[in-house]
Amino acid sequence: MDAPTRTTASIPIHTHPSGNPVGKPDTPYLLNCWYVAAMSRELGAEAMLTRQLLDTSVLMYRKADGTPVAMHDRCPHRFVPLSMGERHGDDVVCKYHALRFDCSGQCTHNPHGTGRIPAAAKVRTFPLLEKYGFVWIWMGDEPADAAKLPDFSELDNGPATGVAHTYMPMKANYELIIDNVMDLSHIDHVHGEIITTRGQLSPLIPPVKEDNNTVNARWEWRQTPAMMIFANFLPDPTAEARGFFDITWSAPANIQLSVGAIQGEGALDLNDTVGQYDLHTCTPASATESHYFFATRRNHIVDDGEYNRMKIEAMHNAFVTEDGPIIEAVQKEMNTNDFFSLNPVLMSNDAAPVRVRRLLARLIAQQSRG
Amino acid sequence: MDAPTRTTASIPIHTHPSGNPVGKPDTPYLLNCWYVAAMSRELGAEAMLTRQLLDTSVLMYRKADGTPVAMHDRCPHRFVPLSMGERHGDDVVCKYHALRFDCSGQCTHNPHGTGRIPAAAKVRTFPLLEKYGFVWIWMGDEPADAAKLPDFSELDNGPATGVAHTYMPMKANYELIIDNVMDLSHIDHVHGEIITTRGQLSPLIPPVKEDNNTVNARWEWRQTPAMMIFANFLPDPTAEARGFFDITWSAPANIQLSVGAIQGEGALDLNDTVGQYDLHTCTPASATESHYFFATRRNHIVDDGEYNRMKIEAMHNAFVTEDGPIIEAVQKEMNTNDFFSLNPVLMSNDAAPVRVRRLLARLIAQQSRG
Amino acid sequence: MDAPTRTTASIPIHTHPSGNPVGKPDTPYLLNCWYVAAMSRELGAEAMLTRQLLDTSVLMYRKADGTPVAMHDRCPHRFVPLSMGERHGDDVVCKYHALRFDCSGQCTHNPHGTGRIPAAAKVRTFPLLEKYGFVWIWMGDEPADAAKLPDFSELDNGPATGVAHTYMPMKANYELIIDNVMDLSHIDHVHGEIITTRGQLSPLIPPVKEDNNTVNARWEWRQTPAMMIFANFLPDPTAEARGFFDITWSAPANIQLSVGAIQGEGALDLNDTVGQYDLHTCTPASATESHYFFATRRNHIVDDGEYNRMKIEAMHNAFVTEDGPIIEAVQKEMNTNDFFSLNPVLMSNDAAPVRVRRLLARLIAQQSRG
After folding, report:
1. Which of B10, B11, B27, B232 has the fewest CB atoms within 10 Å of its CB?
2. Whole-prediction pTM value?
């Protein structure tokens, strides 16, 4: 259940005819796929959110019926960010000359001159999917394909007090964030007591499986005691436990991570262990800045809202104070040099992240040829 | 009277033989013309002012007799800004090695070695004209031509308590500032109650007149009540009034704007209306930063110094808090892309600013060929 | 004794096989020579120091036996700065994945997989020499040559209370710092009362001597009274004294400066005068940032530690508040333009610094051809 599969459910895509699709043949990003644009809770009833995604300013808000909208945050007239303007029902009105645009990006009101609306007065909109507590955006020129969103529906299985989401802006290329999660051998060195494997993880050479669209790695080990985040929920918190990590990257930048611990008999999966189902996913802002989103659902004490709040706060703080400074320091040291051009010394623990980098590079190269 | 004409008056040009004229064949700026370098009041008796103009550091100060001086703010010896040094009568002494330069940019004292002054020890100076409360600078290599300064002498007609000047640095290309003033259809949307036309301006398609050197646009309308800045000075502050805007751009970056309101009979000009004569003028600092200067003279309660002070403060604040953030946001969104390369959707209200952009581009192209 | 000569003493070079020597054929820096990397006192028993030298991040620390170590501050695995990690005896452990490196840059422990250490898992190290209160680094690819460190052993002649060192980061190219010291004609204009020559220095045209590796200049004059820093130690503090400066640049960026004053008979050298032996030396961080190091030993009241402390503090403050702002303003005004491309007006007082610039340019050009 940990490896996401292509969903074929008829989920509603909040899409609109695109006003100004701009082909970017030299883009460094995979385009015809879903990126997280925001956490669902970031889009409220009235406010507008602007965020740079794939080098493009994107305006997001919710219609009165709650469905989210995304469009280029740039009036096609004089290039003012529409986010400086105001909502007018489901439309947005530019602050500079009051051109009004509906959710399809179409200009619907021009207070100037005869009021005629120029044929080109359209804002490019972006298809959105709202799932798993996130708003996903499709920034490519091909028709949005809901089936290309991996299935992370495990996040929805259970009460709200068992699930949490968070967001961190990062001054680093998004592939450095993927590297960090795809090679979990860092956790005993970077992180503190609560998620240590006590050195058991590093010696493992995790089996790595790759298909056309995903890369999976899996670790299994024994440690005494179990990770602190699980130990207290096991029969004997101080005794040996078996543990596992199972991670699956899917394009463009999603990593589904399952982790759990068990004492005694049982399978190393989320049915039998005390564990959690996580999603790490990131979206490039630019070549050197990213949006890092994270969601987690645990399978124990799922009704304890206060524990839920404390746990996501602790995980958020670990990203910000432990992973974040290292990843951002690497970005600074690498500057804008290509990773492989710097001749990294690769080891067995790099198998999974390197396969992701190479598969992603192939997918991006294919789109440029296509 | 609103459209400036070429003045032929024998005004004194404070010019000096240029020490180091540097041809800039690839300049993005119109060179052989007058830009505002400073407000007259910025140049005091002793202090030195340094300001980046057209990508060049410029030092300005006043001689003992009050005439202003401008020169490259760079010692030709070791490139120290002369503004770090000290005044020595009408001369300036470099802080680093005490070379002294007179107002013609000529080195007049060298305390080193034999004291011989190298032939090349000259600082490039720039011709200045002080008129209309501003110090105007000529940065081209052709001889300065006072006749090329448009006539804004209406600014001088009346007591000092009826005239005011202000200055705002802007993080935007100067053409975006010109765009803003040349298309006044923005005022009902960007500005507050005091200068609203209550939506009367936007539907108008203003006649635009262009000759070799100027672009003029004019709006006339009725509104109830008149603009707040004029209503209280009309016979019936709450009743309908006729209003007008008349603006004329002249190279490189001057926009003379007249605006007024009237009830009953009379011409829509500054003789008959309650109104004001304004000058918006801006000077590039670099491709993405500008100096925005503004002067205004009103034709009513011209002896009220306290009203004068409050009014220029209000207008300054409107530029800084209302126009400024929009113009700077456009600059950020456009980055250094050429305006037309981004395919703006142009409308009837863009006729005047687009003609200015095209005429200015032609004038700059002509200078490159010349 | 003032002009440094090549030392042939068998001083220990703390060097190690270089892990990853990268040829830089287009470097703007002279490489096969010694630069100061740090003051000796900056490297303590435990702490690690990171500093950008010649566009390269360098990690420095001391081994348990006190010898200093320098290596590229970049783990060859994932490019994390090793300075984020921890000391492990004489080794350093990377924060990210706990690879351990010894002082030769060799990876000695890999906790991952089988523990095999990849052949390429080496960090480039840099030979160091610790002399004269400084740690000197050799960043070129040729074998480090201790004989290439000029002899500044006069700094060591005397008690510690007569010697002091300081350091200032500067936002300027290092050649601008060399220019400043090689042309001492600036001191009457830039500095205050304590080191003025009362205008006696500027008229002198100092003899400049150049050989293949050094440029020397010398000034001698009379002034009344002597420089304040020396006057109180002369027989008659208010009477005329003879003074001298003798400076010798040696590659890449060392200037040994001797200065003294005398009344009555005697030679203008540090044996007979009340004076001091200084070393100005700087190391490029990048094209526009430098590390400025300074050491001074005086030949009078050498046992007064409090005087020593006050004097170095005063000299440090003079660099920071007097020379520094000028040099940094020149950098800003020049931007990244080449000095000679801006057509500086050169005078007799520029003979020494210009010879240094040209000799250094020749040495750098030779290395590119070599």
Report:
1. B10
2. 0.91
Cβ of residue C204 closer than 8 Å to a chain B Cβ: yes
Question: With 0-12 CB in 10 A as exposed, 13-18 as middle and 19+ as buried, what is A270?
Answer: buried
Using an 8 Å CB-CB cutoff, list chain C residues near A185: 97, 111-112
Question: Which residue do the tokens 């170095």 mark?
Answer: C312
The span from the first CA to the last CA of chain B, in angstroms, equals: 33
Residue C58 forms contact with A (CB below 8 Å): no
Q: Choose among A189, A333, A334: nearest Cβ to C98.
A: A189
Is A114's CB within 8 Å of B348's CB?
A: yes
Chain C: give the shortest CA distance to residue A319, in Å.
13
What is the predicted pLDDT for the residue at B212? 83
Which residues in chain B touch residue C347, judged by CB atoms under 8 angstroms apart? 77, 110, 112-113, 118
Reported as a pLDDT band with limits 50, 70 and 90, residue A193 is confident
Question: Across the interface, do A349 and C81 touch by the CB < 8 Å criterion?
Answer: no
Tell me if B61 sits within 8 A of B48, measured CB to CB. yes
| List of chain C residues whose C-beta atoms are within 8 Å of the C-beta of residue B78 | 179, 330, 344
- A291-348 pLDDT, tens digit per residue, is 999 999 999 999 999 999 999 999 999 999 999 999 999 999 999 899 999 999 999 9
Which residues are CB-neighbours of C69 under 8 A, at least 6 positions away? C14, C16, C60, C61, C62, C63, C90, C103, C125, C128
* pLDDT tens-place string over residues A10-43: 344 443 333 323 334 456 899 999 999 999 999 9
Average pLDDT over residues B89-111: 97
Read off the pLDDT band of A47 (50, 70, 90). Answer: confident
pLDDT at position B35 is 98
C186 touches chain B (CB under 8 A): yes
Helix (H) or strand (E) holding B356: helix B351-369
Residue B284 preceded by cis peptide, ω within 30: no
C286 to chain B, any CB pair closer than 8 A? The answer is no
Residue of B nearest to A122 (CA): B345
Percent of chain A with pLDDT over 70: 92
Residues of A in contact with B179 (CB under 8 A): 78
Spell out which residues of chain A touch residue C78, defining contact as CB-CB under 8 Å: 179, 330, 344
Closest chain B CA to residue C324:
B96
* Chain B residues inside the 8 Å CB shell of C202: 97-98, 111-113
Nearest residue of chain C to residue B52 (CA atoms): C333
Nearest to A120 among B186, B202, B345 (CB): B345
3-state secondary structure chain C: CCCCCECCCCCCCECCCCCCCCCCCCCCCCCCCEEEEEEHHHCCCCCCEEEEECCEEEEEEECCCCCEEEEECCCCCCCCCHHHCEEECCEEECCCCCCEECCCCEEEECCCCCCCCCCCCECCECCEEEECCEEEEECCCCCCCHHHCECCHHHHCCCHHHEEEEEEEECCCHHHHHHHHHCHHHHHHHCCHHHCCCCCCCCCCCCEEECCCEEEEEEEEEECCCCHHHHCCCCCCCCCEEEEEEEEEECCCEEEEEEEEECCCCCCCCCCCEEEEEEEEEEEEECCEEEEEEEEEECCCCCCHHHHHHHHHHHHHHHHHHHHHHHHHHHHHHCCCCCHHHCCCCCHHHHHHHHHHHHHHHHHHHHHHC
Instruction: Return d(Cα B251, Cα C122) in angstroms, integer.
Output: 63
Q: Say yes or no for a CB contact (<8 Å) between B95 and C179.
A: no
Q: Which domains does chain C have, with CATH numbers?
A: 34-138 (2.102.10.10), 152-368 (3.90.380.10)
| CB contact C57 to A (< 8 Å) | yes
Rounded to two decimals, the ipTM of the complex is: 0.91
